[in-house]
Amino acid sequence: MPRRKEVPALGSLCLHSLARHMQSVWVKDYSENYLDEYQFRFVMGPFNDLAGSLVQDLIRLLGESRRLTRAALHLLLLPHLRELSLRPCPGLVSNAIGQLVALRCQSLSSLDLHGCSRLSADVLVDLAEGLPQLSRLGLAVTQANVQVLSAVGSCCRRLQELDVSRCKKVSPRALRHLAYDPLARSLCCPALRILLARGLEPTGDGGTVAALAFLLLALPRLEFLAHGAVPDALRLLHGRQLDGTGDAEGFPSLEELARRRGAAPEGPRLTLPLRRVEEVEEPALAAVHAVCPQAEEAGVWLGDGPGPAGGWELLGWGRLARLTLGCAGQRGRVLAEVLPLARSLGPRLQTLALHGFCCQDELSLAALLASCPGLQTFSAELHAPTDADPDGETPAEPLHWDTDLLPLSFPQLQSFSLALAGTAGVFPAQHGLALRATLASLLCRAPRLQTLHLLSVPFPLDSVFETVLAVPGPPLLELQELSLAESWVSSRTAWLLLASEGRLRRLDLSRCRDIHRRDYDSFLQAVRKQRLDLDIAWE
Predict the structure, then answer these.
(1) What is the maximum span of the chain, computed from C-alpha positions, in angstroms?
(2) Least confident stretch, 229-238, 417-426, 437-446, 502-511
(3) Measured between alpha carbons, how far is 231 from 136 in angstroms, rounded to an integer?
(4) Is residue 385 reached through a cis peptide bond, with omega within 30 degrees of 0 on the bond before it?
(5) Helices (DSSP H) in 420-509: which residue ranges?
(6) Handedness of CA 268, 273, 275, 279 (dihedral sign)
(7) Model confidence at 307, in pLDDT bands (50, 70, 90)?
(8) What are the strands of the beta sheet with 83-85, ordered from one edge?
(9) What is the crossing angle of helices 491-499 and 462-470, to 10°?
(10) What is the DSSP string of 74-86?
(11) Residue 172: CB partners within 8 Å, gap ≥ 6?
């Protein structure tokens, strides 16, 4: 059965006690006598000897429980902090708090200000200039602007990760100030590996693609640039049609930057150290593959063209380990088209996500999984065959499923998700037999599975779980989260799970047609009576 509720650890109990009594005990004197003294370089209080990681845990706990106050935050901004996230309390982070962070927390290597929109651009500049040891900085949904980006680029030489997503005052062209200082005529942010720039306002003059190409050339260690126009920028660089002149703002030309990277119009082709690319449409795949040969993670949208899914470019990506494929065409793709790719990349694939494919052949999912024994995460959203006959002959369902359909085990698989989108009553019965046999075999061969989502499955799943839970061992010992939302499952499966061994902590039975209110009430009563650490959802 799921584990009984454990006695909380002593450290957790102490933090919760601090949080409950923060206002009435720990900050009472400071709140009444010193709250408006913003220039205290140090505050000798009850938290000075608390480890920095515990201080951050306390800030998070207070923020989530809405107990964090301005006075408490004052006392928790301590000089020995190495990491600080103010994401749990953006409403409290005023300019005064920002100045306190710059004054007191000068040893920070990580600062997350996500959503702290009350901080002015001037204070953000002060933070960038006053915290030169930062390696991670989160400025998403803040007032960051060109001046802030210039300060970050010039002062944060150790910065490796930066998030400026959904900053209304940042455009793709403004991002160039992160990578180059026009006044000093020098490159900036030499260590930056990850730049998240989603949801930015487009450049008014249509220079978004050129601006992103500038960043890709000027940041020598960049491994991931999150922006929807990155594939277009990579196509521009692959085509070698680069502007040879600088601009009036003092930035060098793309051609000059490319020469610095060892590429020339008639010389060696440009390659970049990007490890992750996303939102790549199939026509751009060849160019992206050529410019980013070391990519380890890719997200690709496929059209309706013939041939294997992704063409031959994906087959030649030697380091690809995490792959997302989506169908963007009107006709879509059948799942069997992914099989050549799976057979080529399968032994090294760790993550595979498939969206919008049609399960034309009932055994295609089993063949696909059998080609990828090293998977850690798998998710698929599949559609029914277009020529399905819902009134076809229904074969007899076996009493117990054969668990040997898949020839190999999945020793690394931790997360599996299968959604049969919009397919209720449409899948042929033969597909239902094959899919359930595949699931039974998979669940018996994935000893480390922790998360399992079987969504909108229009075939009875009770017999699958009966088969799996009867296998010696038993399987699913590591399973912690199970969602069967909108699937065909009865209360019998829920009772089997409650009686089985394992670590199950969350069970989602939302909109399961064969589970009723009386069943749900019985589940909750059993959980309370046995003091299980299990959350059950139903509606």
Answers:
(1) 82
(2) 417-426
(3) 25
(4) no
(5) 429-444, 462-470, 491-499
(6) negative
(7) low
(8) 83-85, 110-112, 136-138, 161-163, 194-196, 224-226
(9) 20
(10) HHH--TT-SEEE-
(11) 197, 200, 202, 203, 207, 208, 211, 212, 227, 229
